[in-house]
Design goal:
Number of helices: 2
Shape: elongated
Largest sheet: 11 strands, parallel
Helix content: under 10%
């Protein structure tokens, strides 16, 4: 917002704090142990003390209950886990890597560990004496009358099945309270201690075996992976959800082509997904405006957090959350016809290289109820002061490029209605209507739109009411804030400054001439006909 922006991570502490409570060695957060594990671990073993096998693993951190932990691998932001036990799935190739975890608990705390990845284990475990029965089950509930645990994919038995190449999620109906460890072809993947017990799998063509173990019990299943046909894949079956727990499970297990249908009602939690669709088969989250997501607090959490790509979010409402919808590294995602409002900070944030996204035909309103200085309606990219925490380096821009913002109604935002950050390029703001956007004046928030990126087209927008100008252009870094064009926008009133104000300097801003309802006229720079 404006020329100054906050650092998302806070002030970095001088040294990482090493906690003394191990994640995998106790049954509850409050239980003390005699020999504490290090803060970062894989399968209950210290991360970095031995090479990891290639493939997917789950990294855990023994942070205290009540915080929210952010994970980064080799400087790349992965995502945030708001619930204990804190963990994140990673996939890293052979060689040396760096894992980081950060959280706030009476001040900023972080832990960093260097580890290596070696070749995958060569010998698979022995097969069970009897194969698992091929029974179709729901991933979260054992079938009535069937006591044998069953591995499944999308509710169908994994044993003997043929799966398409690529990524999918395997589930097992282990009993509540278990901690399930997953292997594929003898290579350890990670563990899940929260029902429904699931793990993402990526396997090449051929025969494979999945093994799941817990508390002395074990089940396994052999299956085939076949290459996809050259024609478009058949869409995955839709999933209908009506509770917060069902929505959490559906987001975790989402597959390309699948639609998650939300029934009308209130969904309270922190809803997130790292799954990705494809260009031909995006994942869709759909419901009416009466399907309402919320964290239950204006001070903490994201109502919806997507780190996978190729999503369509359609029709739902997000409210009463620290932030509304946040996209991190989510490319080619469309947000359509949603209602996002009454948030503690910003309503919708495209961040961490979330390029080629669209937000359209939506209502964005009443932001910044907890932090007025950070109450943007739609936020594109990250301020340079946040590049290190978001991108891993202060010199690496957040290239959230080619975002299209069109046909939205944006009102009562304490900060800018749309804030376009330096480091972003090539977006469009088209036919949006602003009302009382950028009205607080806090942290330089005093306009409908603030553009600090390059090559944006701003056309056909209209509205009334703001603290100073309708549109502003800033050059906060050399080479940024350049080559932006403004045309066919209109001000109905309530704009005491210019329609388009441009910071002095060689920014090459193009403003089309015409009459304006702004008090000081069209622009402080020469207009073109």
């Amino acid at each position: 917002m404006g020329a100054s922006s906050r650092a998302n991570w806070g002030v970095v502490r001088a040294a990482a704090v090493v906690l003394v409570i191990g994640l995998s060695a106790f049954a509850s957060p409050a239980t003390a142990i005699a020999a504490p594990l290090p803060a970062l671990s894989v399968g209950g073993k210290p991360l970095g003390t031995a090479p990891l096998p290639s493939g997917a693993v789950s990294v855990s951190v023994n942070a205290p209950v009540g915080v929210s932990v952010k994970f980064k691998l080799d400087g790349r932001y992965l995502g945030e886990d708001p619930a204990w036990p804190f963990s994140w799935p990673i996939t890293a190739g052979p060689g040396e890597h760096k894992m980081e975890a950060r959280w706030d608990s009476r001040g900023r705390q972080e832990i960093k560990t260097t580890f290596t990845v070696g070749p995958a284990a060569s010998a698979p475990p022995s097969k069970p004496a009897q194969p698992t029965p091929a029974v179709i089950v729901q991933p979260t509930t054992p079938v009535s009358g069937v006591s044998t645990p069953v591995l499944s994919v999308d509710g169908g038995a994994l044993a003997g099945s043929s799966q398409p190449s690529g990524s999918f999620v395997v589930a097992v109906n282990a009993p509540k309270g278990a901690t399930v460890k997953f292997k594929i072809d003898g290579t350890y993947l990670g563990q899940d201690s929260t029902p429904p017990y699931m793990w993402p799998i990526s396997a090449g063509d051929g025969s494979h075996e999945i093994d799941a173990r817990w508390s002395g019990a074990r089940t396994s299943a052999e299956f085939q992976v076949a290459a996809r046909a050259p024609t478009a894949p058949k869409a995955a079956a839709g999933v209908r959800v009506a509770t917060s727990a069902e929505l959490t499970a559906a987001l975790t297990a989402a597959r390309p082509g699948q639609t998650i249908h939300l029934a009308d009602g209130s969904y309270v939690g922190r809803f997130a997904s790292a799954a990705s669709g494809t260009a031909a088969a995006p994942i869709t989250l759909s419901g009416s405006r009466k399907a309402i997501l919320s964290t239950g607090s204006l001070t903490r959490g994201y109502g919806l957090h997507l780190t996978g790509s190729h999503w369509v979010v359609n029709g739902i409402s997000v409210t009463r959350s620290g932030k509304g919808i946040v996209l991190d590294g989510s490319k080619h995602t469309t947000i359509r016809s949603v209602d996002v409002g009454h948030t503690g900070a910003e309503a919708v944030h495209f961040r961490a290289n979330s390029s080629d996204g669209v937000i359209e035909n939506s209502v964005i309103h009443d932001t910044g109820l907890d932090k007025p200085a950070y109450g943007e309606g739609i936020y594109i990219g990250s301020a340079t002061s946040n590049w290190k925490s978001i991108m891993g380096s202060a010199s690496v821009p957040d290239q959230t490029d080619r975002i299209v913002v069109r046909n939205n109604r944006i009102s009562n935002t304490t900060a800018e209605g749309v804030d376009v950050k330096e480091g972003t390029t090539g977006g469009s703001l088209i036919n949006n209507v602003f009302s009382n956007a950028g009205h607080s004046g806090q942290n330089f928030a005093d306009s409908w739109v603030d553009v600090k990126g390059n090559g944006y087209r701003v056309t056909g927008n209209s509205g009334a009411g703001t603290k100073l100008d309708a549109f502003q252009v800033h050059g906060v870094l050399p080479g940024w804030g350049t080559d932006n064009t403004f045309s066919d926008n209109s001000v109905a009133g309530g704009v005491p400054g210019y329609e388009v104000w441009v910071q002095s300097g060689p920014l090459r801003t193009i403003v089309s001439s015409g009459s304006s309802g702004a008090a000081r006229g069209m622009s402080n720079v020469a207009c073109v006909t």
